[in-house]
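Hi D.,

Good news: the full-assembly prediction came through. Inputs first.
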Amino acid sequence: MEIKQKIAVLVDGMRNKIVERRRDFHQHPETGWTEFRTAAFVAETLSVLGYDVKTGTDAVKESAMMGVPTAEILKAAQERALTEGAVRGWVEKMTGGRTGIVAVMRFSDTGPMVGLRFDMDANDVSECHEATHRPYKDGFSSEHANAMHACGHDGHTAVGLAVAEILAELKDELHGSVKLIFQPAEEGVRGARAMVENGDVDDVDYMLGAHLGFKMQKTGRIACNVTGFLATSKYDAYFTGVPAHAGAAPEKGRNALLAAACAALNLHAISRHSAGASRINVGRLDAGSGRNVIGDKALLRLETRGATSKINVYMEEEALRILKAAALMYDVEVDIKKTGGAAGGSNSPELAQYLQDEAESLGIFDEVIGTCDFGASEDFSYFMERVQQNGGEAAYMMIGAGLAAGHHDSHFDFDEEALLYAARILTVSAVGLLVGKR
Amino acid sequence: MEIKQKIAVLVDGMRNKIVERRRDFHQHPETGWTEFRTAAFVAETLSVLGYDVKTGTDAVKESAMMGVPTAEILKAAQERALTEGAVRGWVEKMTGGRTGIVAVMRFSDTGPMVGLRFDMDANDVSECHEATHRPYKDGFSSEHANAMHACGHDGHTAVGLAVAEILAELKDELHGSVKLIFQPAEEGVRGARAMVENGDVDDVDYMLGAHLGFKMQKTGRIACNVTGFLATSKYDAYFTGVPAHAGAAPEKGRNALLAAACAALNLHAISRHSAGASRINVGRLDAGSGRNVIGDKALLRLETRGATSKINVYMEEEALRILKAAALMYDVEVDIKKTGGAAGGSNSPELAQYLQDEAESLGIFDEVIGTCDFGASEDFSYFMERVQQNGGEAAYMMIGAGLAAGHHDSHFDFDEEALLYAARILTVSAVGLLVGKR
Amino acid sequence: MEIKQKIAVLVDGMRNKIVERRRDFHQHPETGWTEFRTAAFVAETLSVLGYDVKTGTDAVKESAMMGVPTAEILKAAQERALTEGAVRGWVEKMTGGRTGIVAVMRFSDTGPMVGLRFDMDANDVSECHEATHRPYKDGFSSEHANAMHACGHDGHTAVGLAVAEILAELKDELHGSVKLIFQPAEEGVRGARAMVENGDVDDVDYMLGAHLGFKMQKTGRIACNVTGFLATSKYDAYFTGVPAHAGAAPEKGRNALLAAACAALNLHAISRHSAGASRINVGRLDAGSGRNVIGDKALLRLETRGATSKINVYMEEEALRILKAAALMYDVEVDIKKTGGAAGGSNSPELAQYLQDEAESLGIFDEVIGTCDFGASEDFSYFMERVQQNGGEAAYMMIGAGLAAGHHDSHFDFDEEALLYAARILTVSAVGLLVGKR
Amino acid sequence: MEIKQKIAVLVDGMRNKIVERRRDFHQHPETGWTEFRTAAFVAETLSVLGYDVKTGTDAVKESAMMGVPTAEILKAAQERALTEGAVRGWVEKMTGGRTGIVAVMRFSDTGPMVGLRFDMDANDVSECHEATHRPYKDGFSSEHANAMHACGHDGHTAVGLAVAEILAELKDELHGSVKLIFQPAEEGVRGARAMVENGDVDDVDYMLGAHLGFKMQKTGRIACNVTGFLATSKYDAYFTGVPAHAGAAPEKGRNALLAAACAALNLHAISRHSAGASRINVGRLDAGSGRNVIGDKALLRLETRGATSKINVYMEEEALRILKAAALMYDVEVDIKKTGGAAGGSNSPELAQYLQDEAESLGIFDEVIGTCDFGASEDFSYFMERVQQNGGEAAYMMIGAGLAAGHHDSHFDFDEEALLYAARILTVSAVGLLVGKR
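Then the structure:
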């Protein structure tokens, strides 16, 4: 039996397992950096399959983690994971939110290193409890307050485990090595950097990633040449001034509210860049306390974007200077925290073409789309950028899935058939690279 | 026995009653427009004393009420009042938050109408639960969440009832009439306008008001010529735009966050007024939702002030125009609500002098201060302004009281001895006017 | 002799005439809408060659003229033209600055209408008087104060006349018709709209235009597929407030200076457009009078741009609303004048390809560039847009020319050899279309 | 003959001389720091009268001069003065614009030092040439382009010389010493600081100053208790950025225009001061060049004021920080120059009372006004402040004068009778102090 056929049979045989795992993850969603239960399950499963599994400080560089919750939140999540059956040994390794996993299987001494990345985190969304919402109706909706898999990462993780199992099954027929990256905190583009800067993909020759749904909201459709990842940076700026009674002694205040307002306006006036799209948004501004008090506190949440990392760096530098100038303008302090970021970029054209050929030859997709302009941000771009900088190739697929509602919506759900399409194309693509088709 | 002496005796005899009532009010604090229990008790008590008592639509003009809570909050407060023993008949008359009371006693057909105003509402403060805090230690601290008498209005109400009782007692010796105003919602300067515009003080010849503490933080001290009430207006501006994804289609948004930021800056740039002090403060700005969404909602809480009502009107007109222009600037809607206001002004000099003479002749005050520049806002000013405009005289006293902490602080408490000083000077002053001393 | 060879010979024979005319125009530069002498010379010459010549109200729609000088300036320029030898009849027809010319020659009743556009106006620049500046050294520098051909339109006009003469010479070999457009006021993109809206190119099938130099600063180079014309609009906004003494009565002023400053900031904060490049620039802001007077006057000169006309319309609408909002913000008046504009667009690909083929086959160009992204604005785009909207094709060439200094610089000069290249490629292209090569 | 009567006779006898001198100064107006001809005449005249005269570096501290014209302008003015008959020796001493004069006469070894200050400079105004304008009609209007005595300093100087002459005449009857200060550059409040910081009034016990007209626009009226001098500071801020093409590469610019606009808005948003009037005005903003160029230059002319010097210092510090923050906001440079300043303050009450008594007892004034709230700025305040700080007394009078038009108007002229009133009251007041009346 030809290897592609074997894969078809193996995927079919795992149908129930994939769906059950997806539903289990769905029921126990964990937001960014708190994926203790999910990651422990992944680690344990891969370990049993024979993978060499690293996590905690071996997989994640602490200084490069962005947007990490408070120690209290991490601790509580860790305890909850244990309560919910996570293997203590793994969970303890992940202390501090270092829930990323790198799992390697070596098939031969020579041959390429093929990387695959799956993201595991859930959203800060409360899942809807309506009879028409399938996860609720079928009893697998979120059991965690204010957390929901509303973006499909539950499916990504389930698919990743299936790919891992099939590759292990086929190991005698493969060359080179496979490296599976299970990434925390993709939401808010917070997690990839800490794995990339840990060197996790420095030895990768081909890097693959995928997302269910998004711009392909129909099962059976696929796009293999994703371009136009917008580079982005996320910042929180905390302004601190001095309060004063606005009637009795306004001159004694130092006005953080006005500093933030001034910053917001001038941030939006950052000059356009002639080399391509640039973006700035102050999405949140909360300032002041009482009506009759000079506002002494302000928080501003903003993001920059650029068609390229270079344009984003330009936006970022402008933004940081403006925040400082706004603080100086009102004689207040500003504390700026980077809470997220992603690189710009596009799929490596040759690898994209290879994926497209595989998708077409598989014969299971109704529609294989050529180029898909992403126009948004995903921190897979960090892996992509690093691998491409090192001379490797990287590509990201959008795998069609019928959706019940848009991503991040409390009514989000997807057609679970799409999980099988994802498992098939990812395994086939990886195997092709591991048997030297390119 | 001379009448002043009688008053001294009567006040002394009421010492326990005054303190107990103050403590009862303290334990059951009711914030602006929800003073159902307090007001019902006042109404019932005055009615029993023989006063002609009006409340509800007879005392408060609904269209002039500012900063009224939602119907749900009012309803819940009304029910709580009943639970806590308020007389149902009075509480029902006050439906909608119309908790103001006007109580008149006619001593003779001719003679002056003497008005006294007492405010009844509590603050949006959670009372401290520390062993050193007397109300907590002595078991009369607030039983209501997020409500506390942290400004002394519990004392004002208790004093008002004492004055009422003594005047009723002395009624055969008095001429003219007395009109007692128990006002809701002084905090946020929300309540006086609705009583003034109802005509409640249109027939008043002499209008008296008082505050415990404030600039006289020592029991035994008093200031009788209070000047420099700052006129003020309070506004909430709600901006509504259209959200849009900040990366994918920013041009489709209509940015309420920037409209609010723009408004804040330009409001603070309103020109100074050459005729006297003017003030503007945007004390609160809350805008936007997610970092990557064009902010479609914003709330701005602001206030204007002026050394005179005229200057405040100038500030107000500028502010309202600027809010509309900021909305136009970003093509968003703005809904502006007036939530409070007070007039400017100063005590009538002759009446202030009369009060000062009475305070000095009483012999109980250690220190009778001349002029006290208020430099803040109190909506007693509306009563004062109306009476003065009609050719009458009005004056406000600051009656010293030792304080445990500043007004509006969760540790606030005052020396209850001050209640007796207040009852004495207010009764004596009113009686003097009612026996024709001026 | 083959027609292309004839053209080569004819162009060579006109070398001196072309250079002399260029130098004569250079010496008598006329800025936008004052090209009376230049246009009268063009009209007279074309008329003598047998063209049917229209000018004044027959060629230019007055209501669509933008950025027209004052009546005094126009009158003085008209008189100067007469003094400098212009034919009175033509000059009088052009009264009011309607100096555009449309000249048609009909070769056969059927066949295409081929349009060619040349611009005639000079810049508001004072020409340099240095020994190294060839026009000055050779005695043909500007004789008009504050006017100079610093963009090469003198060459364009001279080339246009040569093309006209050769086409007339070859008229028996041609089919269809040719329509020559000599356009005023290209600088500031002010003139094209008035000719397009007059319907001057409504019957044109192929529209050609060209510029010397610009992004092709080497003689012998050419680009035939110019893309990325930025649509643009130019506005002047005049704010009028009320002055007041800044110390004695600032509240009596209405501050036009702050209105303009506020407008400038908010204009630059217009949201990016996701469909392509957008631009905004306030290039000039002049406001106020004395330091101690509330500024009652302000002038703001701005422009918007867009990768497409649609994006530019978005920018324009935002800008106009913001200007009005800024006026409302400071209670001042604003008077907004549109002073220029151009459409967005790109060459018709087939026509561009045709031109490229002709350029290559001519054998005189060292370098035929493929696509050239313009990234700036030129009001030839209005002609292009109209012809393309009507189902015709339009294209613009950049014809290389060695430059002494950049465009609009007082040291600007170009290699006159380039005039011959321009005459050759324009005539050959037009003739090809007129003999039915497409 | 009593000394006051002598003074009356002497003043009357000088009537023609005073008027002629005033007209001569009027015809030869010299703006701030260029008063070479005027000052040389003053120096020569006082020297001849026996005064010890200092000028140049002996009278003016160069580092404290504000708003000094360029070297070219100073040089040209110096030469013009010589051409117009100024004594070369004096003019040369004044090189660099150091035109201030300090002239002392010592009457006795003991006794007070009485200072009188007169200002000499003209305005940057072109005098009107209408038949109804008396200076023009009578042939003594300004012979200097763009310079005019439109504020009455010509009269002040003429009066100062008369006072000097009479005091010299009466020297045997006087005790103590007199010190006459003839100050340059009062317009723009630029000159006083350089004399005060030179120590010119450090030994003065009583300091007198006066202005014709202003708030007393009727001959025969006088105000002796002038209060409410607003402290003020004048600044010019020059922003320098980097130009760039607004279409092709806006991100390469550094936008000085926006920096200035941002500064203007935020300057006007400086918080009010609770201790008294504060003012800010950006009276002039000129920025940018071409419409399509990122503006790389901007000039902002501003002033701050305060009811007291302390409030003005607060405004100044805020303003300076804001200017720097605006530069940082747009990554441009800012160069800030202080061009003027005055102190706040009020007349010494006792000295004001003395002056009022003298004015009343003289019997020549129709109306002696009590307190006059100035509400504007005059740099006499620097002298006043220094003398008061040293324990002395200082006062400023407004001496009524009928006016043809407001101060600084090109139609300004005053009733020359007022010169005699001024000479009388100033001499009498000084003499009174010098004979020990206080």
